[in-house]
Write a structure and sequence with these properties.
This protein has 245 residues and is an alpha/beta fold. It has 12 helices and 6 strands. The protein has one domain. The strands form 2 sheets. It has a 4-stranded parallel sheet with strand order 2-1-3-4, sandwiched between helices. Strands 5-6 form a two-stranded antiparallel sheet. Strand 1, helix 1 and strand 2 form a beta-alpha-beta unit. It is globular and about 50 Å long. The protein starts with a strand and ends in a 5-residue tail after the last helix.
Length: 245
Amino acid sequence: MSKVIGIASEGPTDYMVIKTVIDKITGEDNRYLSLQPEPDMLSRYGNGWKGVWRWCKETAPLEIIMDEIQPRIDIIVIQMDGDVVRKEREVHCQCDSTRCGDKGKFFPLYCESAKSGCMAEVPCKSHETNVVSMIAHGETVIREALSTCDVKRVIITIPCDSTDAWVVAAYDDIDDVELVQDPWKNIIAKQKYYHDVRVRGDKKNTVTYSAFMETLANNWPEVAKKCESAKVFEHAILQSVGLKK
């Protein structure tokens, strides 16, 4: 049975990937709502990873969103790319290795010290630099920003290094593809064509990205084999729709 799924994502290409993948996993044409950013991209929370994180912190409790919005939302998916864990200091503010007098006083995006020069270091000494650690820390950062919620109906996904890595994995057989930094710039947009898709410039857009979706869906089983973050996401989706215990 199809579901109503709300998505909080970094941007429209991520939203496109998440929708395509969920429909492939479930075998259904589900209905989707973009919770963050808003469809007109004028979200008061901003866009990108900071917009997702701020939305998690400031939005209404997810139980209210899920039960009061019509149509009623069955599942919420929150996406933040793993490259945030790799390179953004703010998401390591609360880590044991961070030494800062303002640590724990503010939500990191509200902290004036972070704006002038965050004391957190990257790579963070509190974590290993492998994919499993990046996923775990990303999930923790998001979950700690949320008010209490029914975790069975909320899925956090941390594609590594980004959702672009899932697209690359659908097309190419690259060892440790999740450890390739900025796969959009370094693989997909490196030349004018990526396989048979014309890539116009180095800035992502939904027109170009839509051309990748059929191959992503068709080759999703391979993507889930190559990418730990994809496998984790697939397992969570199957559990949430009752297709796996």
